[in-house]
């Protein structure tokens, strides 16, 4: 288990973007947090410090919390390939997908719990009675019982799920149920993601948020955008797009549920019906840079194979970027530039807990075309702040939405402007931090109450 170091950032920086009333409310909650959390540590535990929305969100939120005077720390658990194969299996099933088809049986449980036990050896030396521990996603659920027994307040946050449960989601929840039951409270991005056996008194809906000042979202000068985009394209197997071309972009992990290959196939099959200056760019992290995603290498390889089979004229308009992860901030700036450069940003997910890769381009004023799944439904008002795909597997619907934005500059401008305002209103970090403070206050006032099945 390792600790991720986060540099404090003063809350006043965030407050500078808010209306006076919102800024005053944020600073009032800062004072409340300082009083209520004095002499306590707030621990965040997840499975990776780099790559993916959870790590990015933690980096921003912890920076502000530390800047507000809260003793808050971030630990990344130590896993092995067997463990991450099991947790990826759980992740896929929580999205209603069979994944690798492997079993969540006794052997899987042993592989899972062995890693939990090793990590608990470190945690039990660090966590004190009265501390608050935020456990993120299925990888950490098995830590809840021991941390509760030690006298900590335990909150389990699940960032994934689908609105309608099926046999696969129920199988995953059967695996997790007794592991998360000891938590004092649980957090989901949407209430629909939670099975009905969670105690609704201690279930909170807290959507993710965006930090406008992070390297991924900070304003960039046009020259910096051009330079960074050129660097990104050095990771491509082929030549970069012409300087005056337009790009359709998707940024995400190389995860089957993000359906990068589906977007590639849809574009390739319909490229001749789109303006011939339009190129497709699929960008994701280097596959060895995200330790908790064992499927990434195969997904990227599948996209490369699909592109290699295209006729040369279409292949030249498809670009696969594998962005380096050695420097997290540099990686974030590359993504920032790609999103700012894009004519249209797509998120063709088959399932999505929330989708910061939707929030980010919306903040940058880009028109977004995204699947009407999970938390994306909450972010985008269809036809107002973006375009929603009712069936993410329908290539004709996707291409029609792309053509609509590419051929109507006024519509693209209106969608982008409304998108930025929606993120400012609903998805900045002040709302997120305030919701955490309110939950922590309730936990500390009411004492230890378990989230238990009926």
TrEMBL record:
<dbReference type="GO" id="GO:0016757">
    <property type="term" value="F:glycosyltransferase activity"/>
</dbReference>
<dbReference type="GO" id="GO:0006006">
    <property type="term" value="P:glucose metabolic process"/>
</dbReference>
<dbReference type="InterPro" id="IPR001296">
    <property type="entry name" value="Glyco_trans_1"/>
</dbReference>
<dbReference type="InterPro" id="IPR049438">
    <property type="entry name" value="TreT_GT1"/>
</dbReference>
<dbReference type="Pfam" id="PF21269">
    <property type="entry name" value="TreT_GT1"/>
</dbReference>
<comment type="similarity">
    <text>Belongs to the glycosyltransferase group 1 family. Glycosyltransferase 4 subfamily.</text>
</comment>
<keyword id="KW-0328">Glycosyltransferase</keyword>
<keyword id="KW-0808">Transferase</keyword>
<feature type="domain" description="Glycosyl transferase family 1">
    <location>
        <begin position="335"/>
        <end position="422"/>
    </location>
</feature>
<dbReference type="InterPro" id="IPR052078">
    <property type="entry name" value="Trehalose_Metab_GTase"/>
</dbReference>
<comment type="subunit">
    <text>Homodimer.</text>
</comment>
<keyword id="KW-0119">Carbohydrate metabolism</keyword>
<keyword id="KW-0313">Glucose metabolism</keyword>
<protein>
    <submittedName>
        <fullName>Glycosyltransferase</fullName>
    </submittedName>
</protein>
<feature type="domain" description="Trehalose synthase N-terminal">
    <location>
        <begin position="44"/>
        <end position="194"/>
    </location>
</feature>
<dbReference type="Pfam" id="PF00534">
    <property type="entry name" value="Glycos_transf_1"/>
</dbReference>
């Amino acid at each position: 288990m390792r600790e991720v170091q986060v540099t404090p950032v003063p809350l006043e920086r965030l407050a500078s973007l808010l209306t006076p009333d919102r800024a005053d409310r944020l600073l009032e909650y800062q004072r409340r947090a300082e009083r209520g959390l004095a002499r306590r540590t707030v621990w965040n535990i997840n499975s990776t410090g780099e790559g993916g929305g959870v790590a990015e969100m933690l980096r921003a939120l912890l920076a502000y919390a530390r800047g507000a005077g809260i003793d808050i720390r971030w630990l990344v658990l130590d896993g092995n390939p067997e463990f991450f194969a099991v947790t990826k299996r759980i992740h896929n099933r929580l999205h209603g997908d069979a994944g690798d088809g492997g079993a969540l049986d006794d052997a899987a449980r042993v592989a899972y719990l062995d890693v939990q036990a090793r990590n608990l050896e470190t945690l039990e030396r660090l966590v004190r009675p009265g501390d608050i521990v935020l456990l993120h996603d299925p990888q950490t659920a098995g830590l809840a019982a021991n941390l509760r027994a030690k006298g900590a307040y335990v909150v389990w946050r699940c960032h994934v799920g689908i609105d309608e449960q099926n046999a696969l989601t129920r199988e995953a929840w059967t695996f997790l149920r007794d592991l998360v039951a000891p938590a004092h409270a649980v957090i989901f991005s949407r209430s629909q993601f939670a099975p009905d056996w969670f105690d609704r008194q201690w279930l909170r809906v807290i959507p993710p948020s965006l930090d406008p000042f992070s390297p991924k979202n900070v304003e960039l000068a046009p020259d910096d955008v051009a330079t960074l985009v050129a660097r990104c394209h050095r990771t491509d197997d082929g030549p970069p797009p012409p300087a005056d071309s337009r790009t359709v972009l998707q940024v995400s992990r190389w995860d089957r549920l993000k359906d990068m290959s589906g977007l590639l196939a849809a574009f390739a099959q319909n490229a001749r019906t789109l303006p011939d200056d339009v190129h497709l760019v699929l960008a994701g992290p280097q596959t060895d840079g995200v330790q908790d995603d064992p499927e990434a290498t195969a997904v990227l390889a599948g996209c490369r194979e699909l592109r290699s089979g295209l006729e040369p004229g279409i292949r030249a308009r498809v670009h696969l970027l594998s962005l380096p992860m050695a420097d997290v901030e540099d990686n974030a700036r590359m993504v920032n530039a790609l999103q700012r450069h894009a004519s249209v940003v797509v998120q063709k997910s088959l399932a999505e807990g929330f989708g910061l890769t939707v929030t980010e381009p919306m903040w940058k004023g880009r028109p977004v075309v995204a699947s009407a799944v999970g938390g994306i439904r909450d972010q985008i008002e269809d036809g107002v702040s973006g375009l929603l795909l009712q069936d993410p597997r329908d290539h004709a619907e996707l291409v029609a939405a792309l053509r609509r934005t590419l051929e109507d500059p006024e519509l693209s401008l209106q969608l982008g402007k409304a998108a930025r305002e929606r993120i400012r209103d609903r998805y900045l970090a002040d709302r997120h931090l305030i919701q955490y403070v309110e939950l922590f206050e309730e936990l500390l006032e009411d004492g230890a109450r378990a989230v238990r099945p009926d």
